[in-house]
Design goal:
422 residues; mainly beta; Jelly Rolls; five-stranded mixed beta sheet; 21 strands; globular
């Protein structure tokens, strides 16, 4: 049994022997390796250096003696520290819901309905033409039917057209009436400050008047001019040309121009706001002279009702016709003036002429002529002894001088005129 272990121990010893320390052994000194049979152990002597190179090693795989040992592998670069996972980006702040847009402004309330066009300032039933400060030329609507108003100087022939004149400056106004071809045809017209009040009539022109006609000085405000169409309405519309001149004077400029402490219409140099100068007259006018000139118990402006201003030259109403000191005619209507004579004169702060006063003015030369045309046949009178109540109508020169016609005050006869006196 020990003999059987010997070859195995030798093999172990050989395996544990140190290799040639300097590589001096020449492997060619070793004899050929004995052929081994299958299953034989390769037992070598101790002094035989084993061939440790691999069988298929090539000479190039064996380092020569002077070869430098291979440089050690470069120190392996330390593994880069593992990249840390990038810190997760913080979750984006959640987008806040956009502030809700304020609700659209509530729908605007329906616009208040535009008021209807302002009605004319005068309620009379007739065509109205608005005229402003600039004046101009205006077509007159054709109107038919009887007249709605009556002037103090025209007969009221047919329907009227009203000019609603609005002034923003003190002005002088004139007008001319033209036919459709631009020819001056004239015609009746009159001016009122109150369209419904005959007593506010300030100017009147007859049917036969032609050419531009000047109105009195007018203050800022609304004025009413009534233009008559005639007995038969025209085939084509007429036009009216209104010319307006702004009138600034010393008597309407709110300045004490003459240095007497009185301004404008408080200055006795001003009979009207249209007066050019404030200079005081010498002698002073009756309405500022300290005397009761008309012996009615009232002295000067403003106590004297017949004084329109401090510069008014008479303390009594201006008479249209003077017949001495006995009769002062204030107004005469056009022929065919119908209705109450008393009412017509009362609206003018006057009274109907008496029969005796009518005799006086006829004797003084008054004749009922308009533009040399005899246009009045009768006149209303009071204190007429041929009528029970004293009111009647008598004939006039050229027709039936002072002949009796009929009794009554409210008469609807043509060619009757009404004469008003103070």
């Amino acid at each position: 049994m020990h003999r059987a272990l010997l070859p195995m121990l030798s093999l172990v010893a050989l395996a544990c022997a140190p290799a040639d320390p300097v590589g001096l052994a020449d492997p060619r000194d070793a004899g050929p390796a004995p052929e081994q049979g299958a299953g034989d152990l390769d037992v070598r002597t101790r002094d035989a250096a084993p061939d440790t190179s691999p069988a298929d090693a090539s000479p190039a795989d064996t380092l020569p003696l002077d070869a430098q040992p291979p440089e050690p592998d470069a120190a392996a670069e330390p593994d880069a520290p593992p990249e840390l996972d990038a810190a997760p980006e913080p979750d984006a702040a959640p987008e806040l819901d956009a502030a809700p847009e304020p609700d659209a402004a509530p729908p605007e309330p329906d616009a208040a309905p535009e008021p209807d066009a302002a009605p004319p300032m005068c309620p009379l039933d007739m065509p109205v033409v608005a005229v402003g400060q600039a004046g101009g030329r205006f077509e007159l609507p054709i109107a038919q039917g009887p007249g709605a108003v009556q002037s103090g100087c025209a007969e009221g022939r047919g329907a009227e057209v009203m000019l609603e004149l609005t002034l923003t400056e003190p002005s002088l106004v004139s007008l001319v009436i033209l036919d459709a071809d631009g020819v001056d045809v004239g015609g009746a017209a009159h001016l009122r400050s109150d369209c419904l009040a005959p007593e506010t009539e300030m100017w009147c022109r007859s049917t036969f008047a032609r050419g531009p006609t000047g109105l009195p000085y007018l203050e800022p405000g609304v004025w009413f001019i009534f233009v008559e169409q005639g007995l038969a309405p025209p085939d084509r519309p007429k036009t009216v040309e209104v010319q307006i001149e702004v009138r600034h004077t010393e008597c309407n400029d709110e300045i004490d121009n003459d240095g007497d402490g009185l301004v404008d219409m408080l200055d006795d140099g001003c009979m009207s706001p249209g007066e050019v100068f404030e200079d005081n007259p010498d002698p002073p006018p009756q309405c500022n002279d300290g005397i009761d000139n008309d012996m009615d118990g009232h002295v000067d402006f403003p106590d004297e009702p017949d004084c329109d201003s401090i510069g008014d030259t008479r303390e009594e109403r201006w008479c249209e016709r003077w017949t001495g000191d006995e009769v002062c005619v204030l107004a005469i209507s056009w022929p065919c003036q119908q209705g109450s004579a008393w009412a017509w004169c009362a609206a003018r702060d006057a009274r109907v002429i008496t029969f005796a006063e009518l005799e006086t003015i006829i004797a003084a030369g008054w004749r009922p002529h308009v533009n040399d045309i005899v246009s009045h046949e009768t006149a209303s009178v009071t204190e007429y002894d041929r009528c029970p109540d004293g009111n009647g109508a008598v004939g006039l020169p050229g027709r039936d001088p002072l002949g009796h016609r009929q009794c009554g005050d409210d008469l609807d006869v043509c060619n009757r005129t009404i004469i008003c006196v103070r």
